[in-house]
Amino acid sequence: MSLANNLLSSNLMSWSSSSPMLPLPSVTPLHVDAFTFQPAVESPASHKKLFLGGAGIRWFDIEGKFVIVTVIGVYLEAMALPSLSVNWKGKNAKELTESVPFFRQLVTGEFEKFARVTMKVRLTGIQYSEKVVEYCEEIMKALGKYTRSEAKAIDQFLMVFKDQDFPPGSSVLFAICPKGSLTIAFSKGQRVPKTGKAVIKNKLLGEAVIESMIGKNGVSPATRKSLAERLSKLMNNKDPHNEANDKVPRKN
Known about the structure:
Layout: H1 3-18, E1 30-32, E2 35-37, E3 40-42, E4 49-62, E5 65-76, H2 80-88, H3 93-97, H4 100-108, E6 113-119, E7 123-124, H5 125-142, H6 148-161, E8 165-166, E9 171-176, E10 181-187, E11 198-201, H7 203-214, H8 221-235, E12 246-247
Parallel strand pairs: 1-12
Antiparallel strand pairs: 1-2, 3-4, 4-5, 5-6, 6-9, 7-8, 9-10, 10-11
Helix pairs in contact: 1-2, 2-8, 4-7, 5-6, 5-7
């Protein structure tokens, strides 16, 4: 790592301890299949304001028919920008989209992440949670980090969703705090609740939930691409308002 990057890393450590309330970058809302992701939300876990990093669809080809199942928005703590810029400033959107290390750093970085998953079709809590767990277990086992602690966290995760039902327009909300907690909340409309439904204290599970959406084999390549495009512009000091009222492409 260069001297400049070492100095920037030292500054980041100082900022994280002495200046936790960095100003949010100014970003636009994103319109994804008739749902609008607001440019900022308040986390139900930390009550910090987080900015919209990117958004996109998750879809299936069902008997030759294009079916959107959910739309996903990912929000980040302001600290994410200087943290990611150490290694990724100067990269374009295509380079970031294709970079596994970039998204691993985004997933594991010492800043809060928040994901909003809004339903386009009705799903039961069991249907939704079992599919998420399937992806998360695969991710953690591939990392060689699936232990008894993670298995217990998975059981807790499934219990939170056991009696839930998600009609179109309802949302599942995930807040992943850098100290290792995963806060889960539910919403029937646009509003983000002030507190979560449950908190699971397992860092690896929280990271796996986000990675299942935007990682190398994540369920929403469109969200991954959107994050790369917007973060590239922000890190390279380009005007994100050029994409005001963006409509995310329906397919990747």
